[in-house]
Write a structure and sequence with these properties.
The complex is a heterodimer of chains A (196) and B (355).
Chain A: H1 4-34, H2 36-74, H3 81-102, H4 108-131, H5 133-138, H6 160-185
Chain B: H1 2-52, E1 69-71, E2 94-98, E3 105-108, E4 115-120, H2 125-139, E5 147-152, H3 164-170, E6 177-179, H4 185-189, H5 212-217, E7 220-223, H6 235-239, H7 244-262, E8 291-294, H8 295-300
Parallel strand pairs in B: 4-5, 5-6
Antiparallel strand pairs in B: 1-2, 2-3, 7-8
The chains are: A mainly alpha (196), B alpha/beta (355).
Chain lengths: 196, 355
């Protein structure tokens, strides 16, 4: 089993890549709202990703879950209360997305986006609790494992909460690719089966 | 007919070419996607290994862990469901070990003097945040006359911020640091980390320290709750001795006494440099351990028995020599032996305090 430092740096790189994808997706979405060419490019990209998006999202959820278990079970980082809430939202995604991929079920985006809508703001709130005193004062976490103290902080902003948020957002982007990509090429069909 | 058949064949061929092209495009997309993912993973691994192999790994001494001799009965495990705490009235065990810095002997024993014993783990973020704060307080003279000893426990070379000696040197920790054994003998003797079922190893050591996030925003307040109030894990039990308002009252009363002696008021309730050398709470002079907690933490804890102004919670006559009271025993009302508002001067930094 690799050391904590190596593992943290590994997840740091993955987090930065996820963040980059999310930012590019956000910018592209905004551009698509105002430019037909950008919209065409976004749809084309989404269509290219869509056949693999459920599998990719499952990989993201699995890696995030394994990372979470690594930190708590191997590194000894006892999860705080807010960490547990995020785990409750992230862990089921491994099963939900895995089953959806096996069943070629594209409708899973409706379920997954609910998890993302809950999980991402939760992670953002936890990240703010770690950094903004006003948020920390409103939390009622325990003394022994306070939510206010991150186990590590990389590049001045990447903590476990930020990593979790990046994971949720990346899964959300992939699910949106599923919807956009499939509907672009199958406008009349219900998005319930994977073409690939 | 020939032309019609030809057109039909062309159309079929065209559709086939389009389907082949679409399939090829899908294959390319899939290849690019998974290839890109593989590249990301490989780059992540390379970056992780290279970045982790940097020269920031400090050199460990030969004493990061060392055997610790325990003399005396280990404190009983803390049980939050029991009241009073089973440790009440028990004498803390003597710990004999060596310094993580240089292997010189370090001893922790009940000696009738104010002491603070701090259990820290190098990988524990709460400890990492707490220790610099205590160093600042030490620089202000808050611990003058108080015997402070850290015990580096939970040491694991595969965990972050290893070794503890380098970490504590880096933060200029000015007090002795005893190395705990790989079996966590010292922590176990103080029943730290073994308090919860299934947590015999001091993974639990990370719990119970002063909340660094709170410490970062709140002024620390020195609260001496009597003899051998065990630090850390039992902080909730110890702090539960008094309601926050009451602790405040105790500090203010001590300040008032000091003010009369020094001719200056004590309007500000927080620790400041001007209190250099003072142990604000007079009974601290006979405390074996000093617990530093923030008012905010106290505010989160349930109040237990109230300590009245005249409660002799530190009456030396109550206990035999070398016998110490811990936790709520200190809050039991007793005969009046000391008026906290009698103008008694808080002890100066270098003064020896006789029991």
């Amino acid at each position: 089993v690799p050391g904590v430092k190596v593992t943290t740096n590994f997840f740091l790189v993955l987090t930065l890549v996820a963040d980059a994808v999310v930012v590019v997706a956000l910018v592209a979405a905004i551009a698509a709202l105002v430019s037909p060419r950008a919209r065409a490019a976004v749809v084309s990209f989404a269509a290219a990703v869509a056949p693999q998006s459920v599998l990719l999202a499952w990989i993201v959820a699995t890696v995030t879950t394994l990372g979470s278990l690594y930190y708590s079970e191997h590194a000894g980082f006892v999860p705080c209360e807010l960490c547990w809430y995020q785990r409750i939202v992230m862990y089921p995604l491994v099963i939900v997305l895995g089953v959806a991929w096996l069943r070629r079920d594209l409708q899973v985006w409706k379920t997954v986006l609910v998890f993302v809508v809950i999980g991402a703001p939760l992670s953002l709130y936890h990240w703010l609790v770690e950094r903004v005193p006003a948020f920390a004062e409103s939390s009622s976490c325990s003394i022994t494992v306070p939510c206010t103290t991150p186990y590590f902080e990389k590049l001045g902003f990447v903590t476990l909460a930020w990593m979790a948020m990046s994971g949720f957002l990346l899964i959300g982007v992939l699910m949106l690719c599923t919807v956009v990509g499939f509907r672009a090429y199958h406008p009349m069909e219900p998005a319930d089966t994977v073409a690939a | 007919v020939s032309t019609k058949a030809q057109r039909r064949a062309d159309a079929i061929a065209q559709r086939k070419r389009a389907a082949d092209a679409a399939a090829a495009r899908q294959r390319r997309n899939r290849l690019a996607l998974w290839g890109g993912l593989a590249v990301v993973v490989v780059v992540a691994i390379i970056v992780a290994v290279v970045a982790s192999g940097g020269g920031d790994s400090a050199k460990a001494t030969s004493f990061e862990t060392h055997a610790v001799t325990v003399d005396g009965t280990p404190l009983p495990s803390y049980d939050a469901t029991k009241s009073p705490d089973p440790g009440v009235g028990k004498t803390i065990p003597t710990l004999e070990g060596v310094s993580v810095m240089n292997g010189k002997p370090v001893t922790v024993k009940p000696n009738g003097k104010p002491q603070m014993v701090l259990f820290v783990a190098h990988w524990c973020p709460h400890c990492q945040a707490e220790v610099p704060r205590l160093v600042d307080l030490a620089k202000q003279g808050v611990f003058d006359g108080v015997e402070v000893t850290a015990v580096a426990t939970g040491t694991n070379s595969t965990y972050p911020n290893y070794p503890p000696s380098a970490w504590l040197q880096r933060v200029n920790w000015p007090f002795p640091v005893m190395a705990d054994s790989p079996q966590f003998t010292a922590a176990t003797a103080h029943r730290r980390g073994a308090d919860r079922p299934g947590q015999g190893r001091p993974r639990g050591v990370e719990g119970g320290h002063v909340d660094p996030a709170l410490v970062g925003r709140q002024q620390l307040r020195t609260v001496t709750l009597g003899r051998s109030c065990e630090l850390g894990r039992r902080l909730d039990s110890v702090a539960g001795c008094a309601h926050p308002d009451q602790v405040e009252a105790m500090v203010l009363r001590a300040e008032a006494g000091a003010a009369r002696d020094r001719g200056r008021g004590g309007g500000d309730r927080t620790l400041e440099a001007r209190r250099r050398g003072d142990v604000l709470h007079p009974p601290a002079r006979r405390a074996d351990e000093v617990v530093v907690v923030s008012g905010e933490i106290l505010g989160q804890l349930p109040a237990r028995e109230l300590v009245g102004a005249d409660d002799a919670v530190h009456d030396p006559g109550v206990l035999q020599h070398d016998e110490v009271a811990v936790h709520r025993a200190l809050c039991e009302p007793g005969p009046v032996v000391e008026d906290l508002g009698n103008g008694e001067r808080s002890r100066r930094g270098n003064e020896r305090v006789e029991q």
